[in-house]
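Dear U.,

For the methods section draft, I wanted the exact inputs and outputs in one place so we can describe them consistently. I've listed the two proteins in the order they'll appear in the manuscript figures. Please don't edit the token lines directly; just add comments below if something needs changing.

First protein:
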Amino acid sequence: MLSKLVLRNVRRSLRDYAVYFITLTFGVCLFYTFNSLEGQSIMTLLGQHSRRGLVESIFILINVFSAFVSVVLAGLILYANQFLMKRRKRELGTYFLLGMDTGKVSRLLVGETLLIGLAALASGLALGLLCAWGLDKLTVAMFLAAPPDLFAFHVSWAAVGKTALYFGVIFLVVMLFTGVTVSRSNLIDLIRGERKNEEIAQRSLSLSVALFLLGCTCLGTAYAILLKRGLLAIDLLWFIMLGLGTLGTFLIFRSLSGFLLRLTRGHPSYYKGLNMFVLRQWSGKVHTNCLSNTVICILLLLAMGVTACSVGLNDTITSAVQSDSPFDLTLSSYAQALDFRPSDPNELFLPAGLDPEATFSRTESFLLRYNDREITGESGYLGVVSRSEYDAVMALRGEPRMTSPLPTAAPQSMANGLAPGKVLVVEDDVAERLDVSRQVINFTFRGEPYAADQAVRTALTEVARSTQLNLWGSFKLDDYFDQMGSKLLVLYMGLYLGLVFLVTAGAVLALQQLSQAADNAQRYELLSKLGAPLSMRRSALIRQVALAFLLPLALGIIHTFVGMRAANEIINLIGHVDSVHASLLTAGALLLIYGGYFLCTCLGAWRAVKGNV
């Protein structure tokens, strides 16, 4: 009998509180997707080529973030369970009146929680497998240089076990809290468990305006500190800034719940349609609204800020890949004599059986000399190149040669991409008086970059062994994989946290509004009896939900805009920030997830009140 009741209640809960189940499923999906990265084929390739241990850093941070995310999701699930328990007080009271003891009621609720948890875990893992497959394929597509047959998806059983363990502990805690709640409940409290609006404090309009202005002052001060000192100056004033920002956000929501109703009373539109009903319903939860709106606003700030910053920094790293390493291979052959110079650089690879014509699309060679200030008259340069060699390299690139004369005493300097750092271009007669540092040979590969890179590496090892030349090679692919490792580190961590915060904000609002909609069912029934048409009641419900969703979003966007101004100053130190791209992607995620929760809340709330009207 108890098992049948559990199944009936779960089916009803999944229908009435689909948002709760969807949130659990999405939480499991996110947790598995990012913890399964260790099994991705592209991560194995990155670990082989990256020189900075970035793959290990990615996995360490994922483990740290996963622990943090599990705490956030545990809090979200406990919060949602608390709402569901309050909503079911009359039902639980009915069980006690029918003769069920506390132990049976506790076992009933534990069974429901266990069944919902198992269903959410199964559906979340199934969705997580699909998302992990898509993330693996997307990651491979992000790499410009990778084996064409690299993509091979594997199920990460370690991630499956980790996800089951973490969420098993979370649901165990939920079941314990549920049992404690039932054991402490009184029958009279359960029977009279219907929700009532809080008393609306009748503040004067001047006090509400004063609170609003005080909140704006706190926010303005916090913004000024942030923009003046930046994000990285973490000291006592930094924490004061956070405190002022949080306090200002709370005061604004607190004052809105007080004077918004008073401001609109004198306007004719207040009495139009069901506007009066909507505003009073929203203002009827004064303390609940201002506290939850503050938390949700901060969650939205974190979600939008982290996502936008990770995408913006990701684009900056991507643009730096080509500019930092313009050549596929740079060889340096060190020498001490002025007459050292191989006749044809391409011949270096002939002993290894590598065809230069088929492997390289362009080869350029020049001597890099030590700078002597007494000869050149300049200091602060890493090397010197003769004018004739500079012109020859420019001709190979199809770029204009140097036409202006170079005075011996004051040579011109150029950042021309010949070698790392700045080099000095001087006349040939000046260059002949300088000691040779090394011969620099830049190669550009022909065809698929990864295959050519592997072939050249093998050939270069053979060349160094057979010729005994002192060669030092810098491969673009090594720099590329280092930068791509940084790119994935930033992107994965940003998306992981950003999506979790966004889901948490949307879920908290949705559950809150669904619970309040169920409590307001009798009020909507009364509106129906008073003659309010169906379309007017539906519109009132949608506006009530929209008010709850849009107010914290509006202030959260303002917070994010200021925060991104400070973050971009840091990102600009690395390269150009594509703010438009980052903003569009963040807006897309916001529309999909936050807008999806709004839609589901409207549908669920209407279903909750429809039965009585």
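Second protein (the one for the lower panel):
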Amino acid sequence: MQATINPQDILKKHFGYEQFRPLQAQIIEGVLNNRDTLVLMPTGGGKSVCFQVPAMLLPGITLVISPLIALMKDQVEALRANGIKAAFLNSSMDNNEAEAVVRLCHQNELKLLYISPERLISIIDGLLSKIQISLIAIDEAHCISQWGHDFRPEYTKLGMLKAKWPDIPIIALTATADKITRKDIITQLGFVEPNVFVASFDRPNLSLEVKFGVKKKKKVEEIIHFVKARKNESGIIYCLSRAGTEEICAELVHAGINAGFYHAGMASDQRSKVQEDFINDRLKVICATIAFGMGIDKSNVRFVIHNNLPKNIEGYYQEIGRAGRDGLPSDTVLYYGIGDVIMLRRFIDESGQKELNLEKLNRIQQFSEAGICRRKILLAYFGETLTENCNNCDVCKNPRMNFDGTLIIQKALSALTRLEEKVGFNMLIDVLRGSHKKEIVEAGFDKIKTFGAGKDLGFYDWQQYLLQMLNLGIIEMAYDEAYTLKVSDFGKEILFGKKHMHLVALEPFTPYKPVVKRELQFDNTADLTDKLFDYLRGIRKEFAETENVPAYVIFSDATLKEIAQRKPVAISDLIHINGVGEYKLHKYGNRFIKEIKSWLKQNDVKAPKVDTYKETLTLLNAGYSIEEIAETRQIQVNSIYSHIGQLYKQNLIDSLDPYINAAEIDRVRNAVKETGETKTLTPLFVHLREEVPFTMIRLALSYLEKAGEI
């Protein structure tokens, strides 16, 4: 009886990975058990797998709601490249294309259908009522919340999904949502006691650097030098204004760099061409406003530069998250000047939610000016505590003086607790310093035990220490409760003496001048690996151009790097490499193996000898049929049966039951007795009146030989 297919089988077969990343297996289990689920996972953390794997195990169609055409196209291409039936419906399609997708839905020919929220609402009572939907996934779920950094009014209508399909599980996914936004997503979607999973937001492969007050001309020179030091690597440069994208692009092009620009003021076909050229590696660098990149699944972006200060931490985190999605080392640099703050404040004055947006701008400014590990600040913003310094940011590489600040922190937290966590920065500082302002006396705050406990420090000093505490996740800001301060769980451990904490000694902010980074090295131990990687990129590009898909859809840089490092010369070696699933192994495996063998020979590198029997065994253990093994290895089916017989005799296969039955063995046993033949197959085949195939005769002889009967 065939074993039941489980999520891990799907992961290996279609995505090429042996193990799930943290939380993925638990998320999938909950979805398969019909639980509504909220998933917070950083960009590149594997959110899509959380609904794509269940989609393959559930009957009918999984509906994936996404706000971006580019995201739909990218994900559908990647799914098809992995042998999964997927399609999208959006405004870029003409009627004939849309009708073709509708037919596939009716014919149960799809497992995943990507759709925009607007299109969803327009067909929810028509097409969608006629197809079997087993799961609904809402990507970029932070767009539903007014507290989110990318609120979209059309997303607010998604609350009706739970009312229309109360029995269908919904999984909402986002890479950027603080605690308040998470709570709002759950409320807006009508979830009741959902599973909530928050993965680590740490992206240790990304270096973080902030540079303050660099003059425009010097900044351009630094960026050009930075890009040229990263030969053949893709990157994004974000600018605040449309004019800024065109200006920096012109400078790069003048310096001989293959760059383009992208902003909302361009014609739609121009934007599409630039985006396609970047995705397909025809453009090396994109200079863009934040209109570019959301949902782009390009895994081999090696650097992100912010030419200006972003408007909030969520946006900054999402934008740097477009680098290094394949897990390889990647660099991020933020340039920031006072002019950026003035411009952003002007934007905020003209926008809605002025107070909220201003506070979020303050937080990104505090991050940029901080003297403590930048990764600690980023993670704390999303509710995660990093206890050790990251050693991969400019502050860690050039540390400031620090001291044991436990007592200062405890004074602040004690006062905040006695004030019932109902005050903001200024009021807390006034209480700590013992101010007798009218509002303090009227509220009775001058009567609390810690009133005046911090009078030895000035207002500015307390302000800076409280900002550090906020950045470290010791205190949190409740945007939805009039911006009052709260003591975090981490803060409570310090308050009650369970942990000690260092603070940075106060000093004027000085910009950090970095040493120019090295080119990315894929294998420091061998130049041959670098050269093979470059060679295999050429082979990958051939496949990509033939299939009209981005190169990373064929194999990611991380997968190609692993291939170059391990130098497989047999299909059985290739199957164990991350990112090589069965579908891609069949499709690309032989060509890559052939090219690796040829390259090794040309470079006088001795290739290891392939054990043909064990290669067949590896593929059998991976679940391949005999016909699939023959096709993959490009040898005859008869040869595979011969291998199976040898493997059985070597005790590497326990039983021949899956391949031959007892009656066939008996017939061959009798034929051997009657002819005396034990080696040559043709006399036995003729004696058996050509009724038993050569393959079965070969297996039967292996069985009899091992049993000692011949």
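Candidate sentences for the figure legend, describing the second protein: Residues 527-547 form the longest helix (21 residues). The radius of gyration is 31 Å.

Thanks,
Y.
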